[in-house]
Design brief:
alpha+beta, 410 residues, single chain, six-stranded mixed barrel
């Protein structure tokens, strides 16, 4: 029979008549609010990471492969440096164990012109190998480009931001002037409007037929500006296996990870994660000092009881266990309430989106929530273990209490 646990339960039952009742409620509340805040922070952080990264991956692939001598300019100006579709990578990517998809694309800078407005954009040419399933969720109006239609006005899809800026709608026509010598222009029919929430795409990119770009660059149908490569179980730190996968035959090629192409966005996500880590550390420190203070109060309140137990033959370890059990009971109560509040709020936001966001600044219309169960379990385990270790510190004072002095304590 565990005498220490039995006495700890008796102490807990009789706290309702002691000053420590208020103190324990404060302890439970502080742990609950701290844990709830951490869980909500992790849920929002993982939500931002999941949504933004998935958008970037869907819109630009995990890896971009281009000619080795291509300048990395904003216009992607590789007019005379195309890739062919007969490279080893393009022909054999389906058999590669690490790759899930590959698509040929090409960019061409130009100026959209209406009767009253002009706007500089990049036309992203896509072909029949384009993975439309990844892009269709971002089309808010209209449809995807039909690659089977020929000898008609080329089709394009523009962003909602560009459509609002130029006052364009679906089925409208718009002219685009291309920067080259001599300058050329094409008339396009708008068949769809997309919205990603990412300024890098919504302000600068329109989607069109790859054949238009090939014709402007005077390429044949077997030439593209680059490959967008999608990797299974993508891990940006694991660059060596990816580099070995991209074998390009006799071509001098280079590849760029999505993290390098969109550094500001990934640096912003990294800063958010760093802030959450600092926040977690501060909450753990506050909770730890709070539990030390509370246990000291509980010990001082029962000094005479401690002296009596020692006089009856209880060892220091047995008496220490009594207060450690009490402290762990408070921690568990706080963690139950903290998980209920934190996960409950995350579930409410996940299903109802009650907290909106400015999409232009945060890349999405509402606060995102992602369920990272490993992080949830890890946070609970870390809090419980660290506070359990911290509880050993205040109970050390019990070893200094002498029975005679304790029984006289007032």
């Amino acid at each position: 029979m565990n005498i220490s646990l039995l006495i700890a339960k008796r102490f807990s039952k009789h706290q309702q008549f002691s000053f420590s009742k208020i103190v324990t409620r404060i302890a439970v509340a502080s742990i609950a609010l701290g844990l709830a805040t951490i869980l909500i922070s992790f849920g929002i952080l993982r939500g931002f990471e999941y949504n933004i990264k998935n958008k970037l991956f869907a819109l630009s692939g995990h890896i971009f492969v281009e000619h080795g001598n291509t300048s990395n300019s904003q216009e992607h100006s590789y007019a005379h440096l195309p890739l062919r579709k007969d490279t080893k990578l393009y022909k054999n990517f389906k058999s590669a164990p690490t790759l899930s998809h590959l698509q040929g694309i090409a960019y061409k800078a130009g100026i959209l012109k209406t009767s009253s407005e002009v706007l500089g954009v990049n036309l992203k040419g896509i072909g029949k190998d384009f993975d439309t399933k990844r892009f269709v969720p971002y089309i808010t109006k209209g449809k995807m480009i039909d690659f089977e239609i020929e000898n008609e006005t080329p089709q394009i899809i523009i962003s909602k931001k560009i459509a609002d800026q130029l006052n364009l709608q679906i089925k409208d026509s718009v002219q685009m002037f291309f920067i080259q010598d001599p300058p050329r222009f094409r008339k396009f029919a708008i068949v769809g409007i997309f919205q990603t929430g990412l300024e890098e795409f919504d302000e600068k990119i329109i989607i069109g037929d790859l054949r238009v770009v090939q014709h402007l660059y005077q390429w044949n149908e077997n030439e593209v500006g680059g490959y967008e490569v999608f990797v299974k179980n993508y891990n940006p730190k694991d660059t060596i296996p990816q580099q070995q996968t991209i074998e390009l035959g006799n071509y001098k090629m280079q590849y760029t990870l999505v993290e390098d192409r969109f550094k500001p966005i990934f640096e912003w996500l990294g800063l958010m994660e760093q802030n959450v880590t600092i926040f977690l550390s501060l909450i753990l420190i506050v909770a730890g000092f709070g539990m030390i203070s509370i246990l000291l109060i509980m010990i001082m309140e029962r000094v005479q009881t401690i002296g009596l137990l020692k006089a009856l033959g209880a060892t220091d370890i047995q008496v220490q266990k009594i207060f450690i059990y009490q402290g762990l009971y408070l921690v568990l109560r706080g963690m139950v309430w903290g998980n209920s509040i934190g996960l409950g709020f995350c579930a409410l936001q996940y299903f109802s989106q009650i907290m909106p966001l400015d999409a232009e600044n945060y890349y999405m219309a509402s606060v995102p929530i992602a369920w990272d169960w490993w992080a949830i379990f890890g946070v609970n385990f870390l809090i419980f273990v660290l506070i359990a270790v911290i509880l050993l510190l205040p109970t050390w004072i019990i070893t200094k209490i002498r029975p005679i002095q304790a029984l006289r304590f007032d």
